[in-house]
Amino acid sequence: MKRLLLFFFAFVLTASVSVAQNTDDIVESIIKEANENSQLEYLAHQLTDVIGPRLVGTPQQQHAHEWAVEQFNEWGIDAENQQFGMWRGWERGITHVDLLSPRVVSLEGQQLAWSPSTPEGGVTASLAILPTVEDQAEFDEWLKTIEGKIVLISQPQITGRPDYNWEEFATEESFEKMRETRQMLNEEWRENMSRIGYGRDLNSKLEEAGAVALFQSRWSNGFGVNKIFSANTENIPVIDLSLEDYGMLHRMVEYGSEPEVRVNAQSKDLGDVPMFNTIATIPGTEKPDEYIILSAHYDSWDGGTGATDNATGSVTMMEVARILKKHYPNPKRTIIVGLWGSEEQGLNGSGAFVEDHPEIVDNLQALFNQDNGTGRVVRISGQGFLHSYEFIQRWMNPVPRDITRHIETTFPGTPGGGGSDYASFVTAGAPGFSLSSLSWSYWNYTWHTNRDTYDKIVFDDVRNNVILTAIMTYMASEDPETFPRDRAVLPMNPRSGEQMTWPSPRTPNRDGTKN
To answer: Beta 511-512 vs 78-101: how paired, if at all?
Structure first.
């Protein structure tokens, strides 16, 4: 009996050492592969430089989905594009804006998403700016004067220098004077827009009154950076101009310099086109009906090339899948990569996946989502799950200290109801976790801007995120326990004074053909 017990304890010890060694070996191989054989630069180049921005409904978005399937297949990973709805198809063409008088110069501008075209060859017109009015009736009288004109619809900025530049070089008195003036002008603009009264319908009213194009400038508070969204017109183009060129035109009109501009903006209406999620799968061996999802939204706005929003998250998850397929080809649980479509219009792709695949959502071990920019991960929340601390800390334990030392964790945290695709799963009661990044001036310089391009990617940080995600995925797959879904008691809402409740799932928009 004594000999039998000794044999048993020796076996357990040997098995434990073997498991530890196996974990150490796989973790080491993940780190080595990520650092010495990284494919990130290539993947990011293909996705941003070659394919370009991935606005839902565009040929570039379709190309991106097809390319991803081909790339996964090259790595030996099964992948497919799953249709979840339809959207308005549109293809961007050229935008050319030229000042013809009082001098000749080409201006920096681009049409907004889903913008209609000018007639072939463009239009030449004088300019008008929104008037200061007493009420909507006065504005309606002014509308009778704009037929055949281009209308400037944004507030001009008094400075193109970000505040940090003023803080560095201006006197304290000059900086304060600028801020007070800007605040006064902002208030005057808001009050006048309130008197005009048309709100979101302003573009439609200007179009109905006979304007031939609209110029806007949505400055993002950084040097040379504008936000680029959608046009919201039926027949005339909406062009975003740089702060500098927009301000110049606005001053020309104010001073009576009678500017004349030619605009040639071409695009194609492609009718109704399908929307997809790209889904790649590495099947599990011991628990194939339990799942880990590597999550990132694949679509983007198209002012830049969607590099940090969200090519970085997408190539992170693709690279994690490549590394795991090579060094951990037979995971215990099934690993899925979800590259979601139409996140920018309301988490539509991930929301549709949650609706269409309840068997995966109900058996989800963990989802790791990366979205908000190129920076290294610095925040992870337990999303309101009572036992999140135990599991996430265990999964993070083998991650190198030089990566985890940057990460602040919050447990159990509160559940996210929106913002990015993890929320589609959290609202359904499934453990989805956001791997939130260091800013790198994301909100001002790259989020939905004309400067969100390859050169803004910080590959050292993205490589760190690959290592973190790959190791956590491996550990979650190997974990003998299934993640429990007990929910923490949520705190009081400081604004309402009422106890917070678990957010409800939003219904995905599967038909954007009229948008």
So the answer is: parallel
At position 341, the amino acid (one-letter code) is G
Q: b/e map of 286-306 (b: 16 or more CB within 10 Å)? A: ebeebbbbbbbbbbbbbbbbb
Are 133 and 191 in contact by the 8 Å Cβ rule? The answer is: no
Query: Which stretches of the chain drop beneath a pLDDT of 70?
Result: 1-21, 515
Q: Which residue type sits at 134?
A: E
What is the structure's pLDDT at 496? Answer: 87
Q: Coil, strand or helix: which one is 217?
A: coil
What is the average pLDDT value for the chain, to the nearest integer?
95
Round to whole Å and give the CA distance between 209 and 147: 6
Residues in CB range of 485: below 8 A, 6 or more apart:
385, 429, 430, 431
Parallel/antiparallel/unpaired status of strands 260-282 and 333-340: antiparallel
- Residue reference for tokens 């791997």: 435
Of 30, 20, 31, the residue nearest 402 (C-alpha)? 31
Instruction: Tell me the C-alpha distance between 422 and 343, whole Å.
Output: 11
* 412: preceding bond cis by omega (within 30 degrees): yes
